[in-house]
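Table S2 (text version). Query chain:
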Amino acid sequence: MAVVSNRRRNVTAITLAGLIVLLAGAALMIGPYPLSLGDAVSLMWSRLTGQGGVETAAGQVLFSIRLPRVLAALLVGGALAAAGACYQSLFRNPLVSPDILGVSAGAGLGAVLGIFLSLPVAAIQLSAFVGGLVAVGAVGLVASAVRGRDTVLVLVLAGVVIGALAGAMTSLLKVMADPYDQLPAITFWLLGSLAAVQAGDVLAVLPAVLVGLVPMILLRWRIHVLALGDEEAKSLGIDAGPLRIGVIVCATLMTASVVSIAGVIGWVGLVMPHIARMLVGPAFGILLPVATLLGAVYLLATDTLARTLTATEIPLGILTAVIGAPFFLWLLWRGRRGWA
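Corresponding structure-token output:
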């Protein structure tokens, strides 16, 4: 891949940041209860200055429904794309996604179990979060028990096995669930949606996302070196083993936290890092922020379409697959080289 100039990288990042502002503004105004730009600005100013009007119907729609949803879309999309960029660099494979180690399948199983047990929403989210961490922990145990093999290959294969097992248990719970009450809720959650997200949910997962994202930013140079291979990393004085474990923990923490409030949303963590690599190259220091911004833009745009295209909201997992799969096939058809 040709070297990407710093000017192009800066322009790309600034363009994506501008798109986020424009899409966020549009998402706040578009919907069954339309708001004008003047209404939105007036309500925002009233909220900041403590004036009245926030308790009106328009204020409730803006601050209780749309603003939390917009923030959740930005957070979930950015976290999934960042995790995908880390996994792809870690495994040196652009076809890797955040659920490669079974985190999405484990989180799905945890949430389905919570719904099956008729737990409250907060407990379901916590169950999904714990389920994702437990699944990746099981993958790590399997990988540590298998010695004398390629570590990356063992991790991927163990992730496939644990993910398949979690998927089978999820299917069993779906068969046993109440078809009139629990099964629709389970199906909707597994397809991914931000319809039920509230401001408290965003605040609850934000620390976990930051705990996972900040170390990746601080270790961006080391992660880039790790993408070149263990031998190259060792020659530069970097111990690949602990670093790989740290990256997996951070990426898993981000993925499990956002999946716990949004459900299983595919393709974001697979396609967005790939596009970011096409735009700014494989250098992880710039790839990570650009992929994060791309993921935020993509999921915000997709969520706005999901709630406005039809009278009944379309689950996010369906739209991301409908949009992402053909686009990824186009990427494969182009046969673009340059993975480093």
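Notes on Table S2: The radius of gyration is 20 Å. The chain has a mean pLDDT of 87.
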